[in-house]
Amino acid sequence: MTFPRLQARTLAVLVVVLPLLALFVYVGARSGPLAPVKVTVSTVESRSITPAVFGIGTVQARYTYRIGATVPGRIATLNADVGDRVSAGQLLGELDGVDLDERLAALQAGVKSSQANLRKAETSRDFARAQVRRYDALLQIQSTSEEVAALKRQELAVAEAVLVAAKEDTLRLQAEREALQAQRNHLRLLAPAAGLVVARHFDPGTTVLAGQAVVEIIDPASLWVHTRFDQVSAEGLAAGLPAEIVLRSAPGSLLNGRVLRIEPLADEITEELLAKVAFTTLPPALPPVGELAEVTVQLAALPATPVISNAAVRSYKGQRGVWKYQAGGLEFVSLQLGRSDLQGHVQVLQGLAAGDQVVLYSEKVLSAGTRIDITDQLTGQQP
Amino acid sequence: MAKGIHIEGLSKRYGSGDTAFLALKDVNMRVEPGEVVGLIGPSGSGKSTLLKCLGAVIDPTAGRMTLGDDVIFDNGWKVRDLRALRRDKIGFVFQAPYLIPFLDVTDNVALLPMLAGMPDAQARARALELLTALDVQHRAKAMPSQLSGGEQQRVAIARGLVNRPPVILADEPTAPLDSVRAMAVIRILNEMAKRFETAVIVVTHDEKIIPTFQRIYHIRDGVTHEEAGEGRALSPP
Amino acid sequence: MISLAGRDILHSWGKFIFTGIGLGLLIGVTLTMAGVYRGMVDDGKVLLDNSGADLWVVQQDTLGPYAESSGIPDTLWRSVRIMPGVADAVNVTYLTMQVRQAERDVRAMVVGVHAGGPGIPGWPPYLLAGRQITRGHYEAVADIATGFTLGDEITIRRHRYQVVGLTRRMVSSGGDPMVFIPLKDAQEAQFLKDNDAILRQRRSTAANPQFNRPAVPGLLEAVTASQTHNPSVNAVLVRLLPGVSAHDVAEPIRRWKHLTVYDRPQMEAILIGKLIATSSRQIGMFLVILALVSAAIVAFIIYTLTMDKIREIAVLKLIGTRNRTIAGMILQQAMVLGLIGFVVGKISATFAAPMFPKYVLLLPIDSMLGFLAVMVICVLASVVAIRMALNVDPAEAIGG
């Protein structure tokens, strides 16, 4: 035997070769398709979940007043600016009436002159009436002729007719004046309700068409969030439910709201339900209209059922279910899933019982024959 | 029963036609078992050619060689396997020991019987026996590089002897050694020749050892001349 | 009989090990190269696997959502869904873009997944951590290769998303990691470039008198609104009912809906045959070169080792060693060298593979083939040395 002589060298060779071989065997067994797949398992718990519905929307005002002229015209003055709060009936601006004021003055003068005419006619009638009365008395005592008395009666009739004409003329002129005044008033832009000026589309001097809005006013108390919910996940959404609103500009602060109504019309193109969510109390700084908001509607808590994480849900051979872990290995169980909440918990209606172990995370797609290696976690960070 | 090596009329021609050169013309040698003869001659005299012919590594052109009882060459090789012939019938000892560096001393010696098909244990036992005879058994497990020159040469001699060949060819075995060691080597060769009944041919031009031979073959221009040597007695170690 | 090769190797084992390690690193590179190719093929396959689809419905005459851009209306899935044999049909969008996280920019394939929960086509089929998307907006599941962690805020175009789940091996055919976001966000992301682009578009629309007509109030707003809405998706992923042939479902869709439909083998042909054909030829060239270099190196090493022993070989021959024994010795040494090289190569390739930015898949079959190739190369490489050894004249051992 030559072994003892070679001992030192043999030892040295072994020191190099054995680790190499050990590494090789390790490499062969632990990598490649033969290696076991690392998974984590979790236990099915029976618990209650509180489903919630998540949607996004934009802040809108329930009442928006778009104030403009009913006739074309040039803007003469505009006193309201964006951000101004206005009260009901407040004059916001005026359109240039061109000769409207002059025509109004002329009519005013006309009315005055017709009123003078009226008074004149009244005076004539009163005089004519007095004459008739006098001549009637004179005729009684036969101190005047029948003819003269008849003449006086005829004069009275004429005076009365003149008076009627003067009255009508005055009324006509007054009506005309009022019509012009009304037209004049239409050139005045008045706030129909108290609110906030949110837009001022034109400046004085601009000619606007009939129907174009010059100023937009909203009622800040009427702000709500026009929210869109995905139809697939909107189960249980109803009016009156409490909602949490997070504005894009303030992601940290939670505003309370309430579902005001679900719109009877859904958006068929985007497959979304539309709902209005009102603020319970408005934030002190009003959110700008059009700002994006995330709305979470909390639904009522559901009775306890077996619950798994949605990370455990897999699709295998066209069925949705989970990999159930038993001492023997893995078995795919197809499941009937119920509601879920936003934290990823899903109710299991059928297929699992509390206490069952299911594969939660895995490194690879699993199949029935996969060898597995159960570990605590797969990423080096706690889930 | 004739033993030893007999060479009659051996000739060797290199090349052919005009460039032909007759390196050995008419070589006659006879070495008996147990005898150590010297083969001396100047450079170019045909010493090496003769040694190569004897060693069966080149083909002689004509002549006759008898090794022990077997005619191995008679105007052509009479044995088919020259390798086996070299392995089993001829022992070589070279100028340098030429030990196999990756085998230890025992295996260097045991390699030949192993090549011949002897079981390892038996071959090693025989090697150890020879090493003991040559007084290097204490280095049996050493590697060649750990040995001194004399020890290496003794191992080389052991290797030459291990298959109990009828003849040993020693090519300048003492060249790298000082006179004391050279004499020791010659003494060993003489002892071994007697002990194993082997004919030993020592090719040399080492003046120190020439006087030790009983018989000397001079070779000059391809022709051998036999002379009586001084046969000086070897001093005990 | 003792093993001459074994003794020689034991004698100069350091030389052998170090030469073997050197050779091994070269073999490791070769194996890794093969792994890169396999990884590319696998990237394509997992892309198809992970989509969970049996059929891909895409724009007519395009090469599907992965190899070419495709746009189809986002309402089309409904008419596909009601075709006989269809179990599920969902919209999906794929777009490779930059995803920002804090100061970092990651190139990723953003996948828009149809609402409906895990298990439907297009969704990540498994997770490493976290959970699947539950909200219809602004949540993301990212491949771990993006470097994102749970809870990270990432920005895709104009919107911020929270990473709620991590997955693995979800890559595009180009190897970019995937980020899954809800479909509506993805549609928007695909269309909306950035705020500047939107403003420019609005301005150019406003400058167009066709759209900006004072006499038609609201027209400009309507046009602008229609410009910021993108009603198209890249493909409809179809899952079939069990036992239904893909062809039977695909044919009517092709014929009556004027769309292109691919089944799994066709999709693989597109991804592997067309998308990575050039790259694979490139890698094939590298493999050939590396094999040649390895062969040359083994041949050179064996040649040198034999040259060092030429004297011993002459002696061995002189003392009667058979050619077979000597050739065997050299051959065995070459093969041992190859074996050490292969072992080292396999180990180094396995440990190096995860460090590559793209997926490197080392298949056992490749290792086997690699081993055979190494052995064949070693045998061939030792031929030169064996020839030289056999040509050594035993007479050389006899000096002079």
Automatic annotation (TrEMBL), chain A:
Tell me where the transmembrane regions lie.
Answer: none
SUPFAM superfamilies the UniProt entry points to: HlyD-like secretion proteins
UniProt domain Multidrug resistance protein MdtA-like barrel-sandwich hybrid: residue ranges: 67-217
Member of which family? Belongs to the membrane fusion protein (MFP) (TC 8.A.1) family.
Name of the protein this chain belongs to: Efflux RND transporter periplasmic adaptor subunit
Against Gene3D superfamilies, the record matches this protein to: 2.40.30.170, 2.40.420.20, 2.40.50.100, Helix hairpin bin
What are the boundaries of the signal sequence?
A: none
Q: Which InterPro entries match?
A: MdtA-like_BSH (IPR058625), RND_pump_MFP (IPR006143)
A Pfam family matched in the record? BSH_RND
Automatic annotation (TrEMBL), chain B:
Which keywords label this protein?
A: ATP-binding, Nucleotide-binding, Transport
Q: Which parts of the sequence belong to the ABC transporter domain?
A: 5-237
CDD domains, sorted: ABC_MJ0796_LolCDE_FtsE
Q: Which PANTHER family match?
A: ABC TRANSPORTER ABCH.1 (PTHR24220:SF86), IMPORT ATP-BINDING PROTEIN (PTHR24220)
Domain of life, per the record? Bacteria
Q: Which SMART domains match?
A: AAA
Q: Which GO terms describe its molecular function?
A: ATP binding
Gene3D superfamilies annotated for this entry? P-loop containing nucleotide triphosphate hydrolases
Q: What's a Pfam family this protein contains?
A: ABC_tran
Q: What is this protein called?
A: ABC transporter ATP-binding protein
Automatic annotation (TrEMBL), chain C:
Outline the extent of the ABC3 transporter permease C-terminal domain: 285-394
Q: Where in the cell is it found?
A: Cell membrane
Question: What UniProt keywords apply to this chain's record, in alphabetical order?
Answer: Cell membrane, Membrane, Transmembrane, Transmembrane helix, Transport
**Which Pfam family is one of those matched by this entry?**
FtsX
Spans traversing the lipid bilayer: 16-37, 283-305, 326-349, 369-390
Which InterPro entries does the annotation name? ABC-4/HrtB_transporter, ABC3_permease_C, MacB_PCD
User: How is this protein situated with respect to the membrane?
Assistant: Multi-pass membrane protein
| Domain MacB-like periplasmic core per the UniProt entry, residue ranges | 21-253
Protein name per UniProt? ABC transporter permease
Q: Which organism is it from?
A: Thalassolituus marinus
